Amino acid sequence: MITKSSAAGCAGFLENNNACRVVAEAADGLAAAQLVEKHRPQILLLDLNMPRLHGLKTLRQVRTTSPQTRVIVLSMHSDEPYVIESLRAGASA
Description:
Blueprint: E1 2-3, H1 8-16, E2 25-26, H2 29-39, E3 43-47, H3 55-65, E4 70-74, H4 80-88
Parallel strand pairs: 1-2, 3-4
Helix pairs in contact: 2-3
């Protein structure tokens, strides 16, 4: 499952190379959390800058509702605090 258009290129690449199958896409954090709960994907590509529910809050919610889903955070932020907070919140990468 992917969130936001910034992840679309990455997910498209993976799907086109038969590395994975995209089961859902979400335009905001709230929709992403709801779709993860519904589909229980193995991997979630998550953008931190999301409307309605910030990526870190989405990440925390996903870790609670679907602990088997691995979350890969994509972000324009390279600041160490964002990386550390994402990992603390349960991101796999």
